[in-house]
Design goal:
Length: 624
């Protein structure tokens, strides 16, 4: 009972020390709970069973990613605060307490932190569950059935997952204390992450970091490659390794070179903060590298969401280019179909194409015919006519493609061999282009040659003006088809109210939330680390004040030192994120530069807020 009371008193008295950890953990728990609540509350059931299954799968995947992130975040945070507490805990040994009792005291104290974060996260999660679902629906632009309370299962899942992770590191802290000596506990704060390296070692790490990081950038920036997925995965590994080597070697080396230049070092308060920055970089480079990598992941997550949303919009436009399409060998059927549709709905657009069935697998259309139909359908024209031995493949919009660049692929059309030189994703043949996947564009000359030995077919396309007339117009077309030999006429009807891809819009919202979680966590890691460092530097600043440095001078030095601590990871993540977002944009055939700029501005705003708070707290803790 005394142990419990003492642990509670330590927790209460040092709550400010734990506040950033409690808040960041609570935010992660809140997001995790609300994701699970969406699954069990069936908020997206109105989108249909198929969409619901996809959304549940996406949310579970994001939850796994969030749990992995939470695992490493708790690992890092508990290590930081254990080091901070070790010096105080070591004093208990002089009071006659054994290491096991001290370890038990730490476990109880850190358990108060975990329980507080868990209760706050789930409590606020339940309080804002309805708002969270409304925001998800608004961001994804989907219909959602708001449920303020769905089931007890999200609470159980969230609490159990968090407690398992937290218990692992609470036990790790207990074991660490049990195995520690008095000396290591008292001096632990000054041993944290300190790695002494001589200049040749720093130079080697700097060169390796530049080479590895450059190799990662090159792989990420390669535009045409058959092994795109393998290159992307290798680029991720190289960038992570390069960032760690950069912070462990290159950046300390640069600051050491600057410190060696007396004209630079003794200007302003640089002598106060440059050497301290060198020490801090060599001591905390893993933390800064981690924050940079988190920032890169956050920018990539946000870009992924916007890319998927734009690709979804392009797919919807592609599929709905025409409402009805007919493929027939009867040249006069198009006018009959148009009159039937016109009787039920206004036709906004009508086009016709001639196609050659050169074999059972391929249909060929002429360049000039496609160009005319594109103008009638309001589509962009093909840039050039294919050469006599060339063909352009008519593909469709895909959600994700790992094929980049055009390749020279031989294609046999009839008894002639053509070189497929371009892949076109404009819906010149509408949804039929996606459904059949066998259309090729050839030059007018080649088309006339193939006409002599091929069957001629006719494609008639119609776009109705009012989507609410779809069912009546489809019924009229079906009557026509039923009175036509089905071996010669086929029909495609695209329902404008089909929502089979609405799960993509939810993925867009999930990516935005993951972006916010990563950025907040990165800012919290920086804040926690600098908060902990302030206690190490308290004696140094007391000495500086005693030898005559004014509080104003020391405050300016602190501001410059912490500015470097935040700006260096930000600069590294900004450069690296450009390559990752650019590679993603090429893969998704989307220009994501504006999203990259916005994501970096948001990161800068979060870091600026954390910087202001860090400066205020740091000055208070060191007594300046």
């Amino acid at each position: 009972m005394r142990m419990l009371r003492l642990a509670f008193m330590n927790f209460r008295n040092g709550f400010k020390s734990y506040l950033s950890l409690v808040l960041s953990l609570s935010f992660s728990i809140l997001v995790l709970y609300n994701f699970q609540n969406i699954i069990y509350s069936k908020a997206f059931a109105a989108l249909g069973q198929r969409n619901k299954q996809y959304i549940d799968m996406l949310i579970q995947t994001v939850s796994v990613v969030l749990l992995c992130f939470l695992f490493f975040f708790v690992w890092y945070a508990t290590n930081v605060f254990l080091t901070r507490r070790k010096r105080e805990i070591g004093i208990y040994i002089f009071m006659g307490m054994s290491n096991r009792r001290i370890g038990s005291l730490y476990m109880i104290e850190i358990s108060f932190v975990g329980i507080t974060a868990l209760l706050a996260g789930i409590g606020f999660g339940m309080l804002f569950a309805g708002l969270f679902q409304l925001v998800m629906g608004a961001v994804s632009d989907t219909e959602i059935d708001v449920r303020f309370w769905g089931s007890y299962k999200p609470v159980v899942f969230t609490a159990a997952s968090f407690l398992v992770v937290y218990l692992i590191f609470a036990l790790k802290g207990y074991w660490n204390i049990v195995r520690s000596s008095v000396l290591s506990m008292i001096s632990a704060a000054r041993q944290n992450e300190y790695v002494h390296r001589k200049s040749p070692v720093l130079m080697l790490k700097a060169v390796l970091g530049i080479l590895v990081l450059a190799a990662g950038y090159v792989l990420a920036d390669r535009g045409s490659n058959r092994d795109l997925l393998a290159n992307a995965l290798l680029a991720v590994v190289l960038v992570i390794a390069g960032v760690y080597l950069l912070f462990g070697g290159m950046i300390p080396l640069v600051f050491q070179a600057l410190a060696g230049r007396k004209t630079f070092l003794y200007s302003g308060q640089r002598c106060l903060w440059v050497n301290q920055t060198i020490f801090r970089m060599r001591k905390n480079y893993r933390t800064y590298a981690m924050v940079s990598i988190i920032g890169i992941c956050s920018a990539t997550a946000l870009a992924t969401g916007f890319a998927m949303r734009e690709r979804y919009n392009n797919m919807i436009l592609f599929d709905n280019q025409y409402t009805f399409q007919l493929l027939t060998n009867q040249p006069n059927l198009g006018e009959r179909a148009a009159r039937l549709i016109q009787g039920e709905a206004d036709i906004a657009c009508q086009t016709s194409l001639e196609a050659l069935s050169v074999d059972r697998e391929h249909l060929v259309v002429a360049y000039s015919d496609v160009k005319r139909a594109a103008q009638e359908g309001g589509l962009a024209s093909i840039v050039r006519e294919p050469a006599d031995n060339e063909t352009f493949y008519l593909s469709h919009q895909m959600l994700l493609s790992l094929i980049m660049g055009n390749k020279q692929i031989p294609v046999t059309l009839g008894d002639e061999i053509f070189q497929e030189t371009e892949v076109i994703r404009q819906p010149y043949v509408g949804y039929m282009q996606k459904q059949m996947g066998c259309f090729y564009i050839v030059s007018d000359t080649a088309y006339e040659r193939l006409r002599q030995k091929s069957q001629t077919l006719y494609i008639h396309n119609y776009k109705i003006a009012d989507d609410t007339d779809f069912e009546r117009a489809r019924a009229a077309i079906d009557v026509l088809i039923s009175n036509t030999d089905e071996n010669y006429t086929g029909r495609v009807a695209v329902n404008p109210f089909d929502n089979d891809l609405d799960w993509v819009k939810v993925l867009y919202a999930l990516c935005i939330f993951m972006f916010l979680v990563f950025i907040v966590a990165g800012g919290c890691i920086m804040f926690m680390k600098l908060y902990n460092d302030a206690f190490e530097e308290k004696e140094r600043y007391l000495v500086l004040k005693k030898i005559g440095f004014s509080s104003r001078t020391l405050a300016a030095s602190i501001a410059q030192e912490l500015l470097g601590a935040y700006m260096l990871p930000f600069v590294v993540m900004t450069v690296s994120a450009y390559f990752s977002v650019n590679a993603l944009g090429r893969m998704m055939y989307t220009n994501l530069f504006s999203i990259y700029v916005v994501s970096m501005l948001v990161v800068l705003a979060v870091f600026a807020l954390c910087y202001i708070l860090s400066v205020a707290v740091y000055r208070k803790n060191v007594g300046v």
